[in-house]
Amino acid sequence: MSRALCTVLAALACHVSHAATPATTRSEIDGLLKALQQSGCVFQRNGSWFSATEAKAHMLRKLDYLEDKRGGVPSAEAFIEQAATRSSMTGQAYQVRCGTAPAEPSAQWMTRTLKQVRHPGS
């Protein structure tokens, strides 16, 4: 086998070793972000509050990074942990505030909302 072919095959093997985000996981993440966008809640990131639409856009950028650079996420829970819990720049936890309710950690809000996405009407 030629050295060039071995190099190409090795590169492909490395690429394949990273599992892409499964379609069912991506569907759940999309449902979660849609629920966030439609919630009317506000989202705190690094000390500033953002609309749910801005938060969704930010999370999609983080998901794109995870898919492009890390090979995807195996589950919606992994997405919450890796992209929707804290700032990757500062380490500060994200917060969600809906209406007059007190702000809560985004991981808590996202996990609860994911259950609703998976089991509508429950």
TrEMBL record:
Secretion signal span: 1-19
The organism's superkingdom is given as Bacteria
Q: Which UniProt keywords apply?
A: Signal
Q: Which Pfam families does the annotation name?
A: DUF5329
Protein name stated in the entry: DUF5329 domain-containing protein
Lineage runs:
Bacteria, Pseudomonadati, Pseudomonadota, Betaproteobacteria, Burkholderiales
